[in-house]
Amino acid sequence: MPLPTNDTVTPGAVDDASLIERLLQRDERAFCELITNYQRLMLTVARAIVGDVFAEDVVQEAWASIYTALPRFERRSSLKTWILTIVSNEAKARLRRESRMVSLEMLDGDTPGSYLDAANFQPDGHWRQAPAHWSQESPEALMEEQQLQTCITNTLNLLPPMQKAAFILRDIEQQTFDEICQILHVSSANIRVLVHRARLSLMQAIDRYQETGQC
User: What pTM does this model have?
Assistant: First the structure.
């Protein structure tokens, strides 16, 4: 079945319970709705872990697994979390097959360090006080928005895969830490480290851009 590319529907906009019932009855239209709702997010997570080259293959494999596993979905987590867990598993399996990575530790690239400034973050992982220049709305700031966005995107793409995936799931997709733990199979403490590191890298890039005009 070809995968739709429409990414305008927000995941969770449909009633998951009724959608699941239709899926269990092998309603093809329900499966198309599921793909429309989650295709964009699945690609985002897959790209964060395996990069652009293998992301679409990973998502195709994930859809096949989802279709097969639907009767065994026990609803202990949300449908979204269950789907993203399958994507994460397929992405890591692809990495292993490509002999690029063999462990979660290697995906991160190093071990937790003391340089993390926990005072910058609340217990839920959000900033205690966001950098002032993040909220600027002056004409000058608006004029630089596109260049700054490019800098942020480039910095995000250079992060180690697990940092990037954790950051996207937490700060862009607004998943809870517990949900991210389930999706990525990483402890809560390590998820916080990964998210903090990603935020610090982005902060440094933004500060550098503000000071020098270069990323």
Answer: 0.64
